[in-house]
Amino acid sequence: MTLKSIAIDGRPFQGSRTGIGRYVYELCSVLDRELTDVNFYIYTNRELNFTPFSSRWHICYESNKFLRLIKPALWLKYFASRLINNQQPFCFWASASFLPSFLHSQIKTLLTVYDLNFLFVPETMTWSHRLSYQLYFKNDIHRASVLMSISFGTSDRLYNNFGRNADIVISPSADKNLFRVPSIDEIDECKHKYNIITPYFLAVATLEPRKNLEILLDAFETLKTQDGVVKDVSLLLVGADGWKNKILSQKVVNSTGIRRLGFVPDDDLRTLYAGSVSLVFPSRYEGFGMPVLEARLCGAMVIASDIPEIREAGGEEICYINPDHDQLVLAMKNALELNFKLNEEVRTSWTVSGKMLASAISALLT
């Protein structure tokens, strides 16, 4: 029997697996279990951080030495189609928001939209990313056979700005066996590992302007001057370097009580969430807000920006604010005083999300 095939943009599997990479990986894991009569082909011009789930998964590397040197987004747009067309898949999953040009017309397409940063916070993006979205995004979302978003808020923004709702909304989830409320011993062990000796707030975000961390750092320094506030409280920053972060990095170096932990394994991140006074997530704009969901699963208090997409991740019990200096200071001060922990059931599952995607793909394959 000849198996049908699905082509997938491999860019989410390049580099460390965070954010979009985790989302695509977890959904692929479910697709492997649900679509047992399908071969999967991942296309890339760079090395991938990906181990195939089964013998039905194939990595298709660019063989041209020159084309392996160009930016992955440019490669996908103008050079990937010659490889994909040769394979003749039934469907191409644009797992990172863009479709290849020159795909054969009989290849159906599924395009995932994570956010609309280029519209709402363009100044936080590199010029090359802004240009890519300005040139290709509108056309690609109208080309897609099926348009998918990761939140209903993003779907609404797609309609308001481009006249097309998402055909399907598949929200991120989190592994409940991993992101769970840890024991006191686990929390103490993690604190010892990272030499944490004071109460701490936690921020989990790439160091780049959209995450609004500069204002968080300023608010934290103000907090420590407030009457009645514990002076030895600290702020821990988890996340990789992003772009436009020189000023932010310098502030971290010059501040007292603020530490960068960089990339942290999920086992440790779980206990860091649970042991914190609160996760603080003051982002200016998000397509969803994975750290907010993960922190909820671990029972942590959360302070987060009040935007629709983050509310989908955060539920009803967390503290939503306008993420300016004064509201951040007040919310963090209240968190120190209340010592509050969440006790909210979180209904989320990668299996449910993955089955929704499998159903959408199955409909395309028929």
Short structural description:
40% of the residues lie in helices and 16% in strands.
Please provide a written account of the structure.
With 366 residues, the chain is an alpha/beta fold. The protein folds into 2 domains: 4-173 and 349-365, 3-Layer(aba) Sandwich (Rossmann fold); 184-338, Rossmann fold (3-Layer(aba) Sandwich). It contains 14 helices and 13 strands. It has helices spanning 20-34, 72-78, 80-87, 117-120, 127-143, 152-162, 184-193, 213-223, 246-254, 266-275, 290-297, 308-314, 325-338, 350-365; strands spanning 4-9, 38-44, 57-61, 91-94, 108-113, 146-149, 168-169, 200-204, 234-238, 258-262, 278-281, 302-305, 319-321. The strands form 2 sheets. It has a 7-stranded parallel β-sheet, with helices on both faces. α1 packs across α14 (350-365). The model has no long low-confidence stretch (mean pLDDT 90).
